[in-house]
């Protein structure tokens, strides 16, 4: 089928009939050359079509101008209404939804959307959200309105997320914001228990290499160089360690009883009694 010829035939037929709007038959205005393709607002570029003809013309335009997202969006608007739901056949609706999903948004459109959203509360541009707004977001996230409500990510999904986030570097500003957002928050015993279980599973499924462990140790020591801990911090650490029983191990050379950390640092291969 030559879609261009069919489109021209419908337009030509409508023009020859000298149609009048708001008369006996219902008509809709249609731009012969769409505005997104630099079509003008002049009367010569407009024609009155019936609702059926208008729908067919917009569908034909998606075949004539393949890959044009603005043309696709115009057709998609004719197939679906937020108020009334699906308005056309399932075949046409499927076709419209498929087109809108596979056609990428241009960088120009993305930029326009960003500018349009700038300054709005939900755009997080330095404007704090109202408490009522926060509650609505929280309620929506914790109810059946959330697509993931009552569901769990599959192992495949978790692996994809892990790979996509591996190697990403956050700016100092972002790290600072993350730290401030968590400061002063207390985790429940249930949350702590869940975190402990998750960490134990991670150690089994994704064990750290010796190289990674060494790098963590080096970076940790670098962070503490030149820093002095307050008396309050020292007291907190003392209280958390008080009463805690460490695993007892023995050096293979001097047979001294000690903790695993002391063993790895001063004994076994590093023992002074090693012969």
Query: Helical region count?
Result: 12
* Gross morphology: elongated
**Structure classification:** mainly alpha
Read across the widest sheet, the strand sequence of neighbours is: 1-2
Q: State the order of secondary-structure elements, H for helix, E for strand.
A: HEEHHEEHHHHHHHHEEH
Strand content: 5-15%
Q: Give average pLDDT, whole number.
A: 84
Brief sketch in words of this structure:
The chain is built from twelve helices and six strands. It has helices at residues 3-16, 51-64, 69-79, 90-102, 107-117, 131-141, 155-165, 172-182, 189-205, 210-224, 231-241, 260-266; strands spanning 28-31, 46-49, 80-81, 85-86, 249-250, 257-258.
Can you give a write-up of this model?
The chain is mainly alpha-helical and 275 residues long. Among the domains are: 3-102, no CATH class; 246-275, no CATH class. Helix content is 53%, strand content 6%. The strands form 3 sheets. Strands 1-2 form a two-stranded antiparallel sheet. Strands 3-4 form a two-stranded antiparallel ribbon. It is elongated.
List the helices and strands and how they pair.
Layout: H1 3-16, E1 28-31, E2 46-49, H2 51-64, H3 69-79, E3 80-81, E4 85-86, H4 90-102, H5 107-117, H6 131-141, H7 155-165, H8 172-182, H9 189-205, H10 210-224, H11 231-241, E5 249-250, E6 257-258, H12 260-266
């Amino acid at each position: 089928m030559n879609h261009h010829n069919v489109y021209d035939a419908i337009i030509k037929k409508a023009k020859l009939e000298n149609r009048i709007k708001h008369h006996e038959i219902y008509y809709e205005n249609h731009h012969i050359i769409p505005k997104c393709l630099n079509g003008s607002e002049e009367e010569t570029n407009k024609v009155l079509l019936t609702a059926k003809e208008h729908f067919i013309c917009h569908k034909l335009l998606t075949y004539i101008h393949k890959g044009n997202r603005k043309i696709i969006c115009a057709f998609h608007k004719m197939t679906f209404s937020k108020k009334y739901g699906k308005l056309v056949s399932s075949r046409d609706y499927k076709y419209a939804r498929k087109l809108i999903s596979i056609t990428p948004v241009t960088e120009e459109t993305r930029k326009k959307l960003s500018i349009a959203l700038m300054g709005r509360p939900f755009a997080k541009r330095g404007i704090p959200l109202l408490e009522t707004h926060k509650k609505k977001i929280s309620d929506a996230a914790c109810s059946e309105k959330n697509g993931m409500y009552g569901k769990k990510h599959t192992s495949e999904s978790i692996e994809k997320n892990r790979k996509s986030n591996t190697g990403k570097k956050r700016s100092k500003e972002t790290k600072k914001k993350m730290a401030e957002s968590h400061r002063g928050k207390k985790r429940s015993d249930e949350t702590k228990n869940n975190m402990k279980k998750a960490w134990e599973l991670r150690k089994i499924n994704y064990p750290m290499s010796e190289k990674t462990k060494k790098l963590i140790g080096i970076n940790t020591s670098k962070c503490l160089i030149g820093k002095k801990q307050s008396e309050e911090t020292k007291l907190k650490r003392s209280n958390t360690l008080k009463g805690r029983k460490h695993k007892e191990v023995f050096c293979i050379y001097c047979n001294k009883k000690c903790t695993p950390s002391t063993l790895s640092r001063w004994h076994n291969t590093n023992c002074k009694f090693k012969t």
